[in-house]
Structures are given as C-alpha cells and as structure tokens.
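thought: user wants a sequence for this fold. calling inverse folding tool.
action: design(structure=
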C-alpha cells in the first residue's frame, strides 16, 4: 500500500510539473500588445479578466474573442474607436489566451440591451459557437480573419453577419474559409482590407507564418474600426 501511495504522489508531482512547464511555454509564445495598443488601452477598465471600453450602454454591447495566444490589450486601438462611436466593447480573456478552453466566457457580460459578438482567428470560430447556442438578445456576429465550423453554424440566424479578411493574410486557411461560407447566412457582408495581414487585426507586431502587410498597422486599425462602425450603424442600429 505504501508503494502505491508513493507511485500516486510521484504521478501527481509529475503531472503538476508538466502543467507548469506547459503554462510557461504557452506564456512565452504569447503575442504582446504594441506601445500604441497599450496607450489606447489606458481609457479602458478591466474587471474579472474582461476589458471594457465604455460607449453608449443603450446600444447593443460588442463582445470580442481574441485570437489564440494574443494578449487582449492588443485589440485596444480599434476597440477604443468603436466605443467612441457609441458601442461599449468587452474584450474577454481566456485561460492561457486560448478561446477553445472557455467558449462561454461571454456569459459574464450583461446582454440586457442586446449584444453583438465576434472574434479574431480562433476567437471568431469560438464566438460563432457561442452565438449559435445563445440566440437570445443576439443582434449580430462578426469575424476578423476567421470563419465558423459546424458547431457555430449560423445559416439559420436572422441577425446580420460581417466577415472581414485581409489580402496579405498568411495565417488564415483560405480553402477552409471559402468552404465555411456555406455555414453563414446569404446576406453576410464580406469585406477585404487590401494590403492588410492577419496580425494587423490587432496591434502586436509580427506573427509567425504571416505575410508582410503593405499598409501600416495604424492604417489597418483605422480600416477595421471604420468597417465595424459602419456595419454597426447600418445593420445593427436601424
């Protein structure tokens, strides 16, 4: 019996070490916000790992799921602009910054006046899952360099959907993106940012495997915010 407990304790210690090493490795690979993003983030407040950019709370709230291993503050530039246009933005944070580990984190945001949800890359895929399962008070869904899979099938949704891509995106799996269009409603609005890349939907520097952008990050951030605000103004608030 003593040998059994020794083995059990040994296994538990080994698992704990593996977990700690995994967390350390993941954190070291996390993409960090640029100085411009950190500056924009100063007007936000963070509660329970949710960063809020305050707008007009009479309008639907915008809930955002970051891309994999991207620090949430990296999206502060366009989020600040969207909030200034009248839409409160809530950027959520996931365990290890991986949306797949806690898809329902949007439950923490009040949706009394309706909500719009979207995400970047993996975050967008998980956001569509949430939208599929939580249609009450849902006003719209948007994708930044992202697309849904079967669990996030939005074909039957009656809310507006926006999909924004960038021409120099080297991360997005374009074949899968095009195939996934069948999971979106026919009235989905598609926009493409010429010269933009995958990392440019946030502001965190170069991303491994991505192509170089032919426009500045500042310009791409401005385009992202403009497209989102126009969509919100024309499709969500009628």
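)
observation: tool returned 238 residues.
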């Amino acid at each position: 019996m003593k040998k059994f407990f020794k083995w059990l304790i040994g296994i538990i210690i080994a698992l704990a070490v593996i977990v700690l090493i995994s967390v350390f490795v993941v954190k070291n690979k996390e993409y960090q916000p640029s100085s411009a993003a950190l500056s924009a983030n100063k007007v936000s407040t963070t509660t329970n790992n949710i960063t809020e950019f305050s707008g007009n709370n009479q309008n639907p709230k915008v809930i955002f799921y970051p891309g994999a291993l991207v620090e949430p503050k990296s999206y502060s530039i366009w989020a600040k602009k969207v909030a200034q246009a009248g839409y409160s933005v809530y950027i959520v944070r996931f365990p290890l910054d991986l949306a797949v580990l806690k898809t329902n984190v949007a439950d923490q945001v009040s949706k009394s006046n309706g909500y719009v949800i979207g995400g970047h890359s993996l975050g967008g895929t998980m956001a569509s899952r949430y939208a599929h399962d939580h249609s009450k008070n849902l006003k719209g869904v948007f994708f930044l360099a992202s697309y849904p899979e079967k669990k996030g099938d939005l074909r039957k949704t009656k809310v507006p959907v926006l999909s924004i891509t960038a021409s120099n995106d080297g991360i997005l799996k374009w074949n899968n993106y095009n195939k996934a269009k069948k999971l979106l409603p026919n009235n989905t609005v598609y926009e493409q940012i010429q010269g933009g890349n995958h990392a440019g939907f946030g502001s965190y520097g170069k991303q491994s495997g991505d192509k170089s952008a032919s426009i500045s990050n500042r310009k791409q951030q401005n385009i992202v915010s403009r497209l989102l605000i126009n969509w919100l103004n024309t499709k969500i608030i009628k």
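thought: summarizing for user.
answer: Here is the designed sequence. The first helix runs from residue 2 to 28.
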